[in-house]
Structures are given as C-alpha cells and as structure tokens.
User: Fold this.
Amino acid sequence: MAKIAIHPGLDFTLAGKKKKLPIIRAYYRPFFFAALPANILSLTLVVVFFKFLPPVIPLLGSVLDRQERLVDKIWIFTLPVIATVINLVHAGVIYFGRKHKVTLLRIFGLITVFIQLLLLAVLLRLILVLLPLGGLL
Assistant:
C-alpha cells in the first residue's frame, strides 16, 4: 500500500483503501456541512437572479440620504463574497486552533452557521423585494 503525504493534514492511501481527508475534525464537520450549502445557495441565488434585478439597488440601508443608499447591482455580490470569506476564515481558525477547547471551537462553528444563515436571509429578502413581482409575495 502506497501512502502519499501532500500535507500533514491530507493523507491519501492507495490500493483501494479508505481515503481520508481530516482537515476538519469529525465533531466540527456538521457545522460546515450546514454552512457550506448556505454559502453555495447564496452565490447561486445572486447569479440566477442578477439579470432580473434593477440597475441600482438599495444595499446600504443605514445611510440617511436616499440617493446614497442606492448602489449598482453588481454590489449584490458582496454578500456571497463576505459569506465565503467568513467560511474560509472560520475553517482556518478551527483548523489551526484545534489544540484549544473543543467546546469553544464548536461554539465558533455554530456562530459560522448562524452568520451564513443570516447573510442568506438578508440576500433572500433583498432579492424578493427587488424582483418585479417581489411586492406581491
């Protein structure tokens, strides 16, 4: 049986044996298997509905002046990009901080899922409001 070591966390065993990729330990995987689909769904929603959005969208809701709230519709990609960066950074923190308390890292993974779902909800609301039939839904 040949063993290939690409990285200390990546082991591939050949000759028909089980291949393992223990980058994220088993007790953290449920959090990232919940956060990753939310991230992919947010990116898919933006790509699918991008052509149906108006040329300017009210992305900056905290600005007082109404004209400054409006941005070009390309800025809607910031939400999936932020979600992706958060996923990558949190996975890195859990991977490199694996020597810390398990409970602390599990809470960190749960926060990752919560942030991903929150960003997905904001994106869904924004898309549903801005679509031509959005006011009827």
